[in-house]
What does this fold into?
Amino acid sequence: MNSQTVKHPDAGVAPLGVLLVNLGTPDSPSVADVRRYLREFLWDPRVVEVARPVWWLVLNLVILTTRPRRSAKAYAKVWTAAGSPLLVISRKQQAALQASLDERLYEGALLRALGASRRQLRAGHLAEFIALGLLAGLVAAIGTECLAWVLYSQVLHFDYSFKWQVWLAAPLLGAVLIGAAGYHGTRAVVRRSPVLLLRER
It folds into this structure.
């Protein structure tokens, strides 16, 4: 008896994954939850690059005894019935991203069925993700500078000067990383059978 293996059109296509990250949020605008969040966030050596023994004294004896109450009032002003705005928005982004990924597969299959080549689709994806990376890098630079300014000037009461290197490096790095990740991750869009995708739709 002869046996024959038939390769499925989708075989060998790596699953597409997207990682969403943010700086975190307290569980509630209460002073206790804000203090716990600040302790965890500000103790991270990637956030504050100061010798640990010195920073432990500053953090626990100065910042965590004064800052949580003021920060809790600020959080209370923007807190919503659904919870932390950052967490709520992140969950909405997750849902929207999942929907857009499904839609991207369908659009890719439709364009393939209409005659678009794989090279054309991949060039379009690359340009799209590079632009997205530039925008994400710019937003990251703005957020980083604002967070650093608040931390240095409002919490630690140090002088702070904005760093132009961040504004140059962040968009370029975002374009390279997101462009490469997006180009690699959307292989499924051009490698999956358009006939099967359209049938599933």
